[in-house]
Every structure is written in structure tokens, then in C-alpha cells.
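step=encode ok
step=design start
structure_in=
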């Protein structure tokens, strides 16, 4: 399986967990009906579909990504959902968006902008988003920020998180000022107004359906499946015992299973051009 195919599979597997939370976030945003929005780093378009539903029949969503395979699948999914006339997919780089100034009413980016951002890159990215958004429009970014999915094993989960492969980009050589949780400061420095933060919780509990079990198993693998040099052998053994299907102690088989994860959302309004901080 290619890297792109594996990533697509993980996105599809995770969608049953993430979709309800994203719907809650979009409901909180109250995107204007009939508005035109941009989904930056849209991937295979799963959130583009939800955004198109959120803005109604007269609204339009443009998804942009740098990977053609993702966009092709997004077009296919939009067709299956009878949303092809309301969603357009474009190949493009978020550092140089292929759109004119003042094109969109809002921009949304999930698990992309600022997650993670190499030193010095975030402010230009925000300003590039602001360039294509009309004055008074919104810039919205959100990302996965935490999870507790091993109920009864808080210390084990904390230890696994401290060394897991999925977190390494955020742990090695990362300045605290560039961590996603500092996004309010980024927004303010970019000159966005009415800056707000909000965290959304996704809960999952027994009895688990097949899709939920698949999504959680995929999550375990994404977070912890690769043993790290500084991880303990005991923690790795416990991970395999609790997180591998077929194990006698597979945690998803617990009749009282409950876990949760969080996404934090940051948003701000684009001011009139003359007030943007340069």
C-alpha cells in the first residue's frame, strides 16, 4: 500500500469518530447560508462535504490540496453525495493560494495549518488566508489536541503519548510559541479581530459499532504502533495487550468502555485592509 493510500484509509476509518465533532464545530460557527468558503488542506474532501451542507443549497465550497489523488477521491465522494455542483476541488499550495483577493467569505482548515508549523511559517500562512477572504469574513483553524482512550490506564496512556510516533513532530525541537495551543497569539499578530478559541469533545462509548471499533483501532495504531527508542518495554507490552484486536484484554471489548478526544478551534475576523498588521 502506498503512503497516500494508507493515509486515505486512515481518514476514512477515522471519519465516524470525527464527523459528529466537526458538525458540532460548524454549527457553532453559524456559517452564513449561501456563503462561499475555502477548505484549506481539504484532503479527500470529507469536511468539504459537511461544509457544503452547512452553507445550504446556495452556498459554495472550494477545497484545495497539493495531492491530486486526494482531490480525485474528493470529487468522487462529492458526486456520491450529490454535491458536485456545490463543491469545487483545486490543486494548490496553501502558501500561495491560487485565488484572487477577497474571493471567499470564510476559510476553514482542519489538522493542517499550524499543525505543525515549522518556525517562521505560520504568520505568512495566516496572512495568505486573509488575502483571499473578504473584509469581515472569518479565518478558522482547528486541530486534534488530546485524547483519553485507554480508560483505567491514565499513566500508561500518558507514557505512550510522551513517546508516540504521532506526537514526535510536536515534541522534537518545537518552540512553545509555535505550538498549536498558542494560536490565539498567532491570530492577533496577523491582525485578525474578534479572535476566539473553543474546544469540542467527541465521546465514544460502549456498545461500540463496527465502524467505531475500526476507527479506534486505527487510532491506536496511528498513535502508538511504532515502538520508540526511549519508550519502556513494559509500556509497549501493555499497549499490545490492551490495543490489539484478538487480545484477551482488548480494551474495546470492555462492556463499559468510554473514551474521548478533543479538537480546539481558533477563529478571527478579517479587518478592513488598511488595518491589517504588516
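sequence_out=
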Amino acid at each position: 500500500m502506498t503512503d497516500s493510500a494508507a493515509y486515505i484509509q486512515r481518514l476514512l476509518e477515522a471519519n465516524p469518530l470525527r464527523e459528529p465533532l466537526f458538525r458540532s464545530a460548524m454549527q457553532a460557527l453559524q456559517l452564513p447560508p449561501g456563503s462561499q468558503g475555502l477548505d484549506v488542506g481539504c484532503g479527500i474532501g470529507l469536511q468539504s462535504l459537511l461544509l457544503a451542507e452547512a452553507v445550504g443549497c446556495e452556498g459554495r465550497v472550494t477545497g484545495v490540496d497539493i495531492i491530486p489523488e486526494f482531490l480525485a477521491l474528493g470529487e468522487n465522494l462529492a458526486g456520491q453525495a450529490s454535491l458536485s455542483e456545490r463543491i469545487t476541488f483545486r490543486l494548490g499550495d496553501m502558501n500561495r493560494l491560487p485565488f484572487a483577493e477577497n474571493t471567499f467569505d470564510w476559510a476553514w482548515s482542519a489538522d493542517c495549518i499550524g499543525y505543525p508549523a515549522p518556525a517562521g511559517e505560520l504568520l505568512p500562512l495566516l496572512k495568505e488566508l486573509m488575502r483571499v477572504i473578504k473584509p469581515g469574513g472569518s479565518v478558522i483553524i482547528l486541530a486534534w489536541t488530546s485524547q483519553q482512550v485507554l480508560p483505567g490506564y491514565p499513566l500508561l496512556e500518558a507514557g505512550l503519548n510522551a513517546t508516540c510516533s504521532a506526537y514526535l513532530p510536536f515534541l522534537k525541537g518545537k518552540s512553545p510559541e509555535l505550538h498549536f495551543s498558542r494560536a490565539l497569539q498567532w491570530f492577533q499578530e496577523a491582525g485578525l479581530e474578534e479572535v476566539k478559541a473553543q474546544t469540542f469533545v467527541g465521546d465514544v462509548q460502549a456498545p461500540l459499532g463496527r465502524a467505531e471499533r475500526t476507527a479506534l483501532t486505527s487510532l491506536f495504531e496511528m498513535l502508538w504502533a511504532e515502538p520508540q527508542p526511549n519508550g519502556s518495554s513494559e509500556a509497549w507490552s501493555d499497549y499490545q495487550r490492551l490495543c490489539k484486536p484478538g487480545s484477551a484484554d482488548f480494551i474495546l471489548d470492555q462492556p463499559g468502555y468510554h473514551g474521548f478526544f478533543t479538537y480546539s478551534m481558533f477563529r478571527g475576523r478579517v479587518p478592513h485592509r488598511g488595518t491589517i498588521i504588516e
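step=design ok
step=annotate ok -> The chain has a mean pLDDT of 91.
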